[in-house]
Each structure stands twice: as structure tokens, then as C-alpha cells.
Amino acid sequence: MSEQKLRAKELDAADVLAARRAAFVLDGDGGANGGGTVYLDGNSLGALPAAVPGRIEDVVRRQWGELRIRSWTEEGWWTAPERIGDRIAPLVGAAAGQVVVGDSTSVNVFKAVVGAVRLARLTAGAAGAARDEIVVDATTFPTDGYIAASAARMTGCTLRPVPPSGIPDALGERTAAVLLNHVDYRTGRLHDLPALTAAVHAAGAYAVWDLCHSAGALPVGLDEHGVDLAVGCTYKYLNGGPGAPAYLYVRAELQDRFDSPLPGWNSHAEPFGMRPEYAPAPGALRGRVGTPDILSMLALEAALDVWDGDVTIEEVRAKSLALTDFFLECVEAYVPGGRVECLTPRPHGERGSQIALRCPDAGDVMQRLIGRGVVGDFRHPDVLRFGFTPLYVGFADTERAARVLAEVLAETGA
Amino acid sequence: MSEQKLRAKELDAADVLAARRAAFVLDGDGGANGGGTVYLDGNSLGALPAAVPGRIEDVVRRQWGELRIRSWTEEGWWTAPERIGDRIAPLVGAAAGQVVVGDSTSVNVFKAVVGAVRLARLTAGAAGAARDEIVVDATTFPTDGYIAASAARMTGCTLRPVPPSGIPDALGERTAAVLLNHVDYRTGRLHDLPALTAAVHAAGAYAVWDLCHSAGALPVGLDEHGVDLAVGCTYKYLNGGPGAPAYLYVRAELQDRFDSPLPGWNSHAEPFGMRPEYAPAPGALRGRVGTPDILSMLALEAALDVWDGDVTIEEVRAKSLALTDFFLECVEAYVPGGRVECLTPRPHGERGSQIALRCPDAGDVMQRLIGRGVVGDFRHPDVLRFGFTPLYVGFADTERAARVLAEVLAETGA
Asked: Which residues form a coiled coil (chains A, B) (predicted)?
């Protein structure tokens, strides 16, 4: 048995989260005998939590099929967006009453960025400063940039894409809002949320964070660091299912002034009053829009059960770093030098929960990996992404992934 | 047996759609023996189609649980919004390639109204006319008005609420877009889509129709009548499930100029190109935004199976009118004159697929009706709504609903 295989065995034996794997439906065996799938694509679509199928069957057959509209009140459908928001809140370091679930990440980016610009203008109003610039991470997942451009166009702002490292210097008295990614979707780089948020605030602007690639994998600390608004998806490290609804965080002190560009009837102070005049609800509900998609939303609610009990996000983070460290160690041991280039930073403070490796034939390599049961994904044009979900990925999985990668790389290219 | 009970028996026996009832999960017996529930709230939440539970179980357990991300391509998740749009299209009189499913109705109203204003300005551009007014049905379901107000604010327009009958006179060279409801959610009044659309066009403006209360219950004829944009929900007469995704129709000739205010990555010409610059996809895909909520969307897809085979929307309309005629006939026979006032117009050309009855104690009356197995709904402050879904409501159901209503009214108020 190789040194890495032995290490994997020891690490798995000492893993305090190992038992959580049973909360998911996985065909692999945790790598113990090298069988089944090693699923390293939880940063795209989280694996199925075991609690989901039964819950959804009940929602479809009994709640919809038998109770029908009564479920809006009797089964808590109507309050699901804020109830499930409160389940996500502790995972991103937010007190209750600040997170609401619904719509896609893109739609929530629109609400948050327009909302942030409007907040900046309210604040700037008396001082007379013209806040007319939205700064966006130039390396962002594209939808954030596209939606920020629309928000800029519709609020009379200019959109300014800036690489994250250059953002502090780009801020000024014209900056209204800054849209940032906590973890870069491509490289897995973790950005410094506390420092960047402080810099945005020092410039008198509002910070919007996209947590898609961090929530559920590492501590975020929204309240602690004074983040203004945040959005995230729930189908990656939160395992909510394909296209599960996203969420919006609005800091409690800002909620009374949060002025949504999508003031649908679900955000009305009295939604069943059917009044022609809009009056926004207080609190997180103000971020709601239309009727929530109950099936997807209640699948997410069931999926969040995997966090119940004594699991903490700090334990998850510790294991995530141990997994990615170990993966890099195995890649270095198995893969000939120079065959791949690691795009993910080595320092723990700059690393999310994925490893991105660049190689010229990445598309072909990933196809072969998947064919051998190691599932990561490919990002155009030359990136292999491997996501590590600490609740269900183990160290033997990790060793096997690196070993199979080395085998594939030995057969191809170079 | 009363005259009405005999008539119900005859009408049920002659009903060409009677067999469709078997495609739904219903606890009633169609009224034959007066057992179970008479469900007259399909205009709020359609009953569960029998094909849905099995399909969703497969989507959850196999597609998500086993195939995971492979399902985005292998199970057609990625193309679901336009594929399911093409299933809805014939029901609203649209050729393929013009309807895309996703987001809530409210979000689609925003896309459509902003899109219509931008189209109007493109057209008006050369002539120099300032199109700066959005006209909205003053009796609209509130969310349409709230969202239209936001669209007006964000495009520099004025919002002008006008009662539907006054709309032709309110149009002029400043009108950019007109947002109308095909059927009024409260009264069940059917508006004249062909004539109103023609009036909007004569004024050089763009017509946006909300089909929430008509799609699946009566012919819409979007293509035939030259409607520009339309939106609708899928959880009423389309039976897609609670909060099922809504849809957006953009007329084929306008698609190249449709300029969405929510240009998420799913509407990009090359979504996996991950390009920083936005380039819109051609066709209906341009109406997409973020990742589609697959569970809710595929439940809707299965729900649309009830339309397969030889059922036509014209047959559905004929039965809908026969049901509402018969309900009014029974109400007149059973309920003492003056106890309720019918808000729904008598002429077939002005009636949707619901009957709205006003009585001062409507809230209490509806509670008692539901307690006796006749499920309609209550709209503040004094409206009883009874929705007739021709695919699963029969004439004996209808007679029983009127009879129980008369019993309840005899016990209460007045």
C-alpha cells in the first residue's frame, strides 16, 4: 500500500465528519475498496441527501395531492421562503430574520445590486455626492457581471469591472455598490471578505457578496463582518437539488431602507389585502417576489437536515482544507511535474473548497476521468475543477481521484 | 331527484372530456354519490395530475441521486425551459419557439414590461416620439401593478392605471406598453384580447398580456391576434404544482429586438463560454435568466401530459362555459334571490372559467363550504370564487357545490 493510501486510511479513521456521509445517497463506498463513483462535483450540483426523496413524495402526494390549497397555510408553504432562510442563516453567519429563499441567483443579484445602489443614494443624498458607479469583480462568474450591467443601466450607473486585488484602489466617492465573489468559481480562490467589505464601507459604498462557492463549505460571517447584502445558490455545498432556489441576505439595519426592484405581491406588507398600492413588508420578506416554487423549495428544506445535530461549519472548513491539502499532496506524488498547473492558491486563507488544475487537454482528461468514476468538471478552455464537499467526500476518495487523474494524464497528451 | 340533479346526470353522460378526470388524483367521485371533495379552486392551485408523483420520484432518485450533473445533458435538464415552453405554446395559440418557462409570473411581468418599453422606444426612435407611459389595467391582480410601477420607475416612464373598458381611449403617442389581464382574477371577467391588442397596436404601443387565469381554460390565440408579449403562471389551469414556474411569450418577429432587463447567463448565446461580455441567445431562450428549478419544472412537464391525445382547448372552453352556465342555473334555482350577487358577466364572450359571487359574509360562508367538502376560495373582502377546471370538474360536482352553497347560505347571515 502506497504512503498516500495509508495516510488516507488514517485520515478517514480520524475524520469527525465521516458519519455524515450516510446522510447522502452515494453509490461509492468512500473509496475503501475503490468502488463506485468519487463525486467531486458538489461545487456544481450537490449529491442527493437521503431525506429528500421521502419528503418530496409527501409534498407531492399528500400536501399537493390531498390537501391542495390548504397546504399554503397548514403545511407552511406560504412561510417557506423565510423559514428556510433561517435554516441557511447560521451557515453563513447571519442571525435569524435576514435571509429569504427564492428565485435564481441571477434574479437575486439584480435585487441586491439595485438595492445597494438605492441605499447608497439615500445615504449620499444629503451630502450631495453622486454615487453612480458599480464596481464588479472582473473575474466573476459571468451572470453576476451581466446582471450588474443591467442594474447599472437601469439605475443610471457605470459598471466598472476590476480584478479583486485592485478593488480597494478603485473605490471612491462615486462608488455606489461593489459586487464580489467570496470564492472564484474557476480558480477556487477565496477572497478576503472582511477586508474588502471594510474597504467598501470606508469608501461609503455598499458591499454585495455572492456566496455561491463558499456557503456550506467555509465560515462566511456575514453579520460579524458587516456585509450589507449577499446572495447565493443552494444547489452546490447546500445540496438543495438542481436549480434549487437561491437566497438573499439583507442586513437587519438596512431592511427598512431596502428598496427592491422586483416588488412582487409576496413582498407586500399585506399580500392578501389585494391593494393596488404597494407597501413593502418589514424584514427579510421584503426580498420575496412572486409565488415560491414549493417543490424545489421543500426539497431544499429537507436537504438542510444534513446540518442538524452537532456539525459545525468550522469542522467542515477544517476537513475541507485537509481534503484539498491531501489532494494536492497526492497530485504532487502521482502526477509528473509540469503536466498540470494548480490555479488554486496554496495558502489556506486564500483557498475555497475546490482545486482547479490547468492542463491544455482538460476537456478530454475530464471525459476520461468521468469514464473511470471520478467526477469533477471542465471549465472552458483548459480547467479541471474538483470540488470537495466535506460532508460526503473522504480521504480515500481523494487519493483515488488523484491516482486516476495521474493514470489518465499518463495516457494522454504531453 | 331534482330537475338539476337529472340535468347533471345527462350533462355528465354527454361530456366528451369526462374520461380526463382519471388523469388526476381526486378524492371525490365526480359527484355521483355526493362523496369526497368538490374541488373548485383549480384557478388557485390545479389538482395533482396522476403522472406527476412517479415522474418526480424518478427525477429525484435517479436523475439527481444517481446521474447527478450528467442529467443536465443526458436527461435534458438544460433545455427544459424551452422544451416545456413548446408544450404550453399550443395551449395559448403560439407556434413553437416563442414560449420559455422559468421564474415567477412577477419576474416575467418585469421582463415583459421593460422589454415592451424598450421595443417601443426602438420603434419610436427615428420618429422621435417620446414613449414614456405604461398603461396598466387598474383592476389587475396586484403584483402586475406593483411590478409595472417598478418597470416604469426604472425606464423613466409614468404608470397609468386605467380600467380595462377605458383603455382604448387612454392610449396615445406617449404610450409605450400596455399590461392587461386576459381574465380578471377577482370577477372572472374575460377581456377582449383581439380588440384591445389591435387598439394598442393602432397607438403604436406594445401589448403585454397576463394569461394566468385563461391559459388552459380557454383559447388565447396569441399568434393569431398579434400579441407582442405574454406571461402566465402554470399552477392554475395548467396544474403544474404549487409555485410551478411561469412562462414568457415573445412574438417571433420581436425576439431579435427583445432586450431583457434580466440578462442572466442562461440567456447567453454561449452560456458555457463563460465570457465577460453579454451576447443574447436568439429566440425564446433570450427570456431565460438563471439556472432553472428542475424539480418544479419537470413536475410541470409531467403535468402537461394531461393534454396529450385528442383533447382540444376548444372542447375545454365549451365545457367550461357549460359548467359555469349550469352552476349559475343551479345557484338561481337553489339560492334565495338577493342573497348573493354574481360579479361574473353572463355573456360567454366576457366570461372566463370561474364564477365570482359577492355576499357580505363571504369569508364565513367559504369556511363552511370547505368544511362540507366544497372547496372554492375567498377574496377579501366579500367575494366567493369558484373555479371550473373542465378536465376534472363534472356537472354533478357543480350541482352539489350549488346545493351545499344554498344550504350554507340558508344557515348564515341575511
From this structure: none
Bridge partner list, A101: A247
Amino acid residing at A359: C
How many C-beta atoms lie closer than 10 Å to residue B58's C-beta?
A: 15
Residue A18's nearest CA partner among A5, A30, A2 is A30
Of B272, B231, B263, the closest CA to residue B250 belongs to B231
A210 is in an annotated binding site: yes
Question: What helix, strand, coil percent values describe chain A, rounded to 5?
Answer: 45, 15, 40
- The pLDDT tens digits of the residues spanning A112-129 come to 999 999 999 998 765 556
Q: Is the CATH number 3.40.640.10 carried by domain A78-291?
A: yes
Q: Which CATH class is domain B3-50+312-411?
A: alpha beta
Give yes or no for a contact between A97 and A317, defined as CB atoms under 8 angstroms apart.
Answer: no
Q: Which 245-284 residues of chain B touch chain A by CB within 8 A? A: 245-246, 260-266, 268, 272-276, 278
Beta strands of B302-398 (E only): which ranges?
A: 341-342, 354-358, 374-375, 377-379, 383-387
Q: CATH 3.90.1150.10 in chain A, residues?
A: 3-50+311-411
**CB B194 within 8 Å of CB B157:** no
Dump pLDDT digits (tens) for B355-365. 999 999 999 99
Catalytic residue, chosen from A121, A251, A385, A400, is A385
Residues in chain A with CB shorter than 8 Å from the CB of B105 are: 290-291
| Average pLDDT, rounded, for chain B | 95
- List residues bridging with A180 in a β-sheet: A209
Q: How confident is the model at residue B248 (pLDDT cuts 50, 70, 90)?
A: very high
**Boundaries of CATH 3.40.640.10 in chain A?**
78-291
Q: What is the pLDDT of residue B310?
A: 84
Quick check: B399 and B330 in contact, CB under 8 A?
yes
SS3 assignment, position A47: coil
Residue pair B233/B252 in contact (Cβ under 8 Å)? The answer is no
Per-residue model confidence as pLDDT tens digits over B101-115:
999 999 999 999 999
CB contact under 8 A, A278 and B149: yes
| DSSP H/E element including B210 | strand B206-210
C-alpha cell at A41: 462535483
Interface of B with A in 220-239 (CB under 8 A): 233, 235
Mean pLDDT across B198-204: 97
Domain A3-50+311-411, CATH class in plain words: alpha beta
Q: How far is CA B181 from the centre of its chain?
A: 9
In chain B, which segments carry CATH 3.90.1150.10? 3-50+312-411
Decide if pLDDT at A263 tops 90. Answer: yes
Which ipTM was obtained for this model?
0.97
